[in-house]
Specification:
The complex is a heterodimer of chains A (502) and B (153). Chain A is an all-alpha fold and 502 residues long. Chain A is 75% helix and 1% strand. Chain B starts with a helix and ends in a 14-residue tail after the last helix. Classes of the chains: A mainly alpha (502), B mainly alpha (153).
Chain lengths: 502, 153
């Protein structure tokens, strides 16, 4: 860690405009996280049009604010209406809602916010210590290594696939194919443009991103008329956890921190996995196991700490290698490229002040989110009262405006709607959207670096396994496809065996 | 959804073959990769994955395994109407301008989503439109489509 840059970054993050925008994005993140159906990735997509016109360090911090805010906000609806606001808050429901039913919603929300802060601050320091070192190492990469790295990144499709690995891979390959549309960068030949002039430069990433994630979601919500959520109305008092309560959850917090950061750094895994793992481990290590599921504060602290601890971990591979750790960082990677920031080791070498502003701001942000989170508890019932039938049309208009701002072309908005329809059907038939985006982002990187590696080696493919770094990435790629395949196979065998026994 | 998966697999294979044919007349290079090589790899991948999907779902179909389609009753017409409304919104925008068409679109879609407090819909629609227009026009210098009538703004 370069202390001078860190200090500079810290000062930058406290600059009035930067700090103000960080607060705004954190508030937006908490609200979006609290609303079921709105995710951190959707939040990042919705603020993208605004990010275009901001200094890059402010834009970076706003994205991080949205990410961390949404992670904390997810607990609000999980605790108050038994519906996780984001997938990462799925395990918070298990003990959060029973606490609400016992009239302790305020206490549960307070504990969730404090645990989120502990996880977030731990992951911020890990990010600060790990990312610069990894970036220094990554400066040694050559074309073959980058090709293998992108193959590794693409292989994450398998683990980011959700229920069906096959469908995840199909989605990813479709993304690669989409990335080949337009004039190729090697010879200058038009590929699959069908005479449409606008397709010459290929599909812009933003309409694809907005279409698949945001428009697809709005279309899914338009299937049926939506009512308002049922909220148990009660006085939200006794919000701040007492010292005795904090002492009773310290094991859960330690477990959450460790699991969260490890899961965060592993590409393909994210907050949704971390929260359940942390919940299970906290229960195993707890002296009050029997209270889990009935309204245990430990059961709220562990998953909330873990999902926030993944945020810093997720950012490590994304910032240093340009490979996203999960769906949110995949969207963030796309967003960064759109605003002209290319994550990777060179980013640390060429723009250290900007990177350290993010790293230092990440720490500041945790304190901001803790304060905002605690303040938002009183307003949480009001947040959940925002009706879906007003929210979704507004989201659609934001998407339209967002896409229009790329080049003042309504053509791009049309592309977003088309990809929205694709995203809707993908959602309905269990094809995950994240691999498609990974394919669109990493596809050109793989093609470009493969070409360069082969030019350097004189068409000798063995260069991919001769270089140790490249070989390691290829092995990791094989592992990252094989492990989920094996796990799926094992689960199926287990399921079949259980069926037989019954 | 084995039937849907089966036909999706076939469609993917057809797409892959189409891509493969489309790359045949692309230039070839002596060193490195040509413009057609990479899409061909993607096509092979899709062909392979599409075949697996078709075979897997074909087996399920043969076993008469059934899974209901994941659409609630009346979903298709509603989604289709939403897409149509949005396309109409985009199509009309150059003629009417952002400021005129957006509140109408917002109000209609809010009602479509089930809002019954019409006044709230109208006020929200107008407020959101104005905030977006002013923010983009004056803060970000992005000119959203406007009709002549609003040139004075």
């Amino acid at each position: 860690m370069e202390f001078g840059y860190f200090l500079q970054g810290l000062i930058n993050s406290f600059a009035p405009y930067t700090f103000f925008m960080m607060v705004v994005s954190s508030i937006a993140g908490i609200v979006i996280g609290a609303l079921p159906g709105m995710t951190a990735s959707m939040g990042i997509i919705l603020i993208l049009p605004f990010l275009y016109y901001m200094p890059k360090d402010v834009a970076l911090l706003m994205m991080a604010g949205m990410f961390c805010g949404a992670m904390s906000g997810g607990a609000i609806s999980a605790i108050l209406i038994n519906t996780p606001g984001t997938p990462s808050a799925s395990a918070t429901v298990l003990d959060g809602y029973p606490l609400t039913q016992q009239g302790k919603a305020g206490k549960a929300l307070g504990m969730a916010m404090v645990a989120s802060f502990v996880g977030g601050i731990f992951s911020s320091f890990c990010l600060l210590l790990i990312a610069p070192e990894l970036a220094k190492f990554a400066l040694q990469f050559q074309a073959a290594d980058y090709f293998s790295l992108s193959i590794f990144g693409l292989s994450i499709m398998a683990s980011a696939s959700g229920t069906s690995i096959l469908k995840g891979l199909i989605s990813g390959w479709l993304g690669i194919l989409i990335s080949t549309v337009g004039i190729d960068g090697i010879v200058g030949v038009e590929r699959f443009t069908f005479g449409i002039a606008e397709l010459g430069s290929g599909f812009n990433l933003l309409p694809v991103l907005i279409g698949v994630f945001a428009v697809g979601q709005v279309l899914e919500d338009s299937e049926a008329k939506k009512g308002e959520y049922e909220i148990i109305r009660q006085e939200l008092t006794g919000v701040m956890p007492t010292w005795a309560e904090m002492r009773s959850v310290w094991v859960a917090l330690v477990v959450g921190c460790i699991i969260g950061i490890i899961i965060g750094i592993i590409p393909g895994a994210g907050g949704a996995i971390a929260c359940f793992l942390a919940y299970n481990e906290a229960r195993r290590w707890s002296k009050r196991k029997e209270q889990f599921g009935k309204g245990s504060l430990e059961g709220v602290a562990a998953p909330e700490c873990a999902n926030n601890a993944t945020t810093g971990g997720d950012m490590v591979p994304m910032l240093t290698l340009g490979v996203p750790g999960d769906v949110v960082t995949a969207v963030m990677l796309g967003a960064l490229m759109l605003i002209g920031i290319r994550p990777g080791p060179l980013l640390f070498a060429e723009q250290p002040v900007m990177v350290y502003t993010l790293l230092a701001g990440f720490i500041t942000m945790q304190i901001v989110i803790l304060g905002l989170g605690l303040l938002s508890i009183k307003a949480s019932i009001r947040i959940l009262s925002i009706p879906n039938n007003i929210l979704m049309p507004v989201v659609m208009v934001l998407c339209t405006v967002g896409v229009f701002t790329i080049g003042n072309q309504l053509y791009e908005v049309g592309v977003a709607i088309v990809f929205g329809v694709l995203g809707y059907f993908m959602k309905k038939f269990d094809y995950p959207g994240a691999p498609l985006i990974l394919g669109v982002i990493l596809g050109p990187m793989a093609e470009d670096n493969l070409n360069r590696a082969l030019l350097v080696s004189g068409n000798d493919w063995s260069i991919m396994v001769q270089r140790p770094i490249s070989l390691v990435f290829l092995i990791l790629a094989v592992i990252s496809v094989a492990v989920p395949l094996y796990t799926a196979y094992r689960d199926r065998q287990r399921g079949a065996a259980e069926k037989k026994n019954k | 959804m084995p039937r849907v998966d089966f036909f999706t697999g076939l469609a993917l294979m057809a797409l892959a073959i189409g891509v493969f044919i489309g790359t045949l007349d692309m230039a070839k290079v002596e060193r490195g990769i040509g413009p057609g090589d990479y899409p061909r790899v993607a096509a092979w991948g899709l062909l392979f994955l599409g075949a697996i999907l078709s075979v897997q779902s074909g087996i399920k179909l043969a076993r008469r395994e059934k899974q209901p389609l994941p659409f609630p009753p009346g979903a298709f017409p509603r989604v289709f109407a939403m897409v149509l409304m949005t396309f109409a919104y985009i199509y009309l925008m150059p003629y009417t301008g952002f400021v005129l068409i957006t509140p109408v679109y917002l109000f209609l879609t809010m009602v479509f989503f089930g809002l019954r407090r019409y006044l709230l819909g109208i006020v929200t629609g107008m407020a959101v439109t104005l905030v977006l227009f002013v923010t983009f026009r004056y803060a970000f210098q992005v000119l959203l489509p406007i009709m002549g009538l609003f040139d004075f703004i």
